[in-house]
Hints:
Blueprint: H1 7-13, H2 22-35, E1 39-44, E2 49-52, H3 54-60, H4 64-67, H5 72-77, H6 85-92, E3 96-101, E4 107-116, E5 122-131, H7 133-166, H8 174-186, E6 193-196, H9 203-212, E7 221-225, H10 234-239, E8 240-241, E9 254-255, H11 257-260, E10 265-269, H12 276-288, E11 290-291, E12 300-301, E13 305-310, H13 314-320, H14 325-331, E14 334-337, H15 347-363, E15 368-369, H16 371-379, H17 385-399, E16 404-405, H18 407-411, H19 416-422, H20 432-451, H21 454-461, H22 465-475
Parallel strand pairs: 6-13, 6-14, 7-10, 10-13, 15-16
Antiparallel strand pairs: 1-2, 1-5, 3-4, 4-5, 8-9, 11-12
This protein binds adenosine-5'-triphosphate (ATP) and magnesium ion (MG).
Adenosine-5'-triphosphate (ATP) binds at residues 167-171, 197, 199-205, 311, 386-387, 390.
Amino acid sequence: xxxxxxxxxxxxxxxxxxxxxxxxxxxxxxxxxxxxxxxxxxxxxxxxxxxxxxxxxxxxxxxxxxxxxxxxxxxxxxxxxxxxxxxxxxxxxxxxxxxxxxxxxxxxxxxxxxxxxxxxxxxxxxxxxxxxxxxxxxxxxxxxxxxxxxxxxxxxxxxxxxxxxxxxxxxxxxxxxxxxxxxxxxxxxxxxxxxxxxxxxxxxxxxxxxxxxxxxxxxxxxxxxxxxxxxxxxxxxxxxxxxxxxxxxxxxxxxxxxxxxxxxxxxxxxxxxxxxxxxxxxxxxxxxxxxxxxxxxxxxxxxxxxxxxxxxxxxxxxxxxxxxxxxxxxxxxxxxxxxxxxxxxxxxxxxxxxxxxxxxxxxxxxxxxxxxxxxxxxxxxxxxxxxxxxxxxxxxxxxxxxxxxxxxxxxxxxxxxxxxxxxxxxxxxxxxxxxxxxxxxxxxxxxxxxxxxxxxxxxxxxxxxxxxxxxxxxxxxxxx
Length: 480
Ligand SMILES: Nc1ncnc2c1ncn2[C@@H]1O[C@H](COP(=O)(O)OP(=O)(O)OP(=O)(O)O)[C@@H](O)[C@H]1O
Ligand SMILES: [Mg+2]
């Protein structure tokens, strides 16, 4: 009687099978079902178990002999199942899916399908069981990653906003207004831009302003400092490497900086520092708009707007043979020259005020600059350009013990060379009167610092004491 419930029996019942081969095919089917990754559970039309395959047994922990021949209802009573998809199918005559949780902790998706006879009666219910434990774990992990991703997305948005504010562009000089006009005209195009100018003039600020005003503004802005990439690492840093390109921890592969800038803007900063061999590698990528990772075979299409910046005179470098002429022309589509601060002194008060507000709010201070302090800042020639001005204002805000920062206080921050710069008449930036006053003021200050009394200072400078007192008044120098 036992044999009634074997697959051989099911095979024998099948109308499609030839009676001679029934047993063999039934046996083969049984073996095939036992090889399957999914669990298979078969009941007859009343809910009596006919067959369970090996996968089902190992997933559920239910042994074949404990199930075959028994009614599903009895198995529920014995605690093997909480509910039965097969019984639901018999009841509804429709496919049913439920999640089965077994005592071994496994969570499985059971999908039961009815098999009808020619009279429309259910002759079998075939249930397919798939282990969902791993899938559910993966789903949970995916949900966690999704949440994390959302968090990063918002953080990135905030950071981008911060960075944008950090790189606000300030200046109302004629040359800066011309730069704004160029930015307006070219930002929305994908034209390559070459930004030239001394160190600290704001080349990066201009590059970011172009990105901010471009159609790529929501894409990445990646800055590559060409001077800081060693030649031997140029390709792997810029183009990335394919998995297996190197042995060891980095074996997984990594996108290069160019790939990271896809759909955004790539700032090639200090491009003048690139070696000739790196220049030709870069040129090839820029011309083909494709990168191939180191060790990779498939070129990857890239959609990147290129901005290059340098404080070198690239044309001269081309003449000297240290910069490739073809790369120079490839980059020099829209050149933007940012003049040094000493050539656009009108920007100094505006920039100083901007940085003062910036650091007052950062350090919770309320410092102001005296009128003469502004004048002094305007006189100075700023060899380090805007960066130097910005750093000085930060120092002043942090260190000045008074609410009003005076020219006197500021001059203490200029070193010997800077004072020489200040008095650099050769540049023709000061009128003779301005230069004389500045030197006079500085000399008196230095003498007072050294000799302490106006009498001694006067003697050292070869003038009368009343003259010193009068000049101190004129220049606003405090006498102790
Ligand atoms: N027009 C400007 N408005 C506001 N801040 C500016 C301006 N120009 C420069 N800065 C500030 O001065 C500093 C130096 O600017 P930036 O880094 O853009 O100079 P750079 O020309 O790229 O210098 P380097 O050649 O040394 O890389 C930055 O902190 C920047 O925010
Ligand atoms: Mg820079």
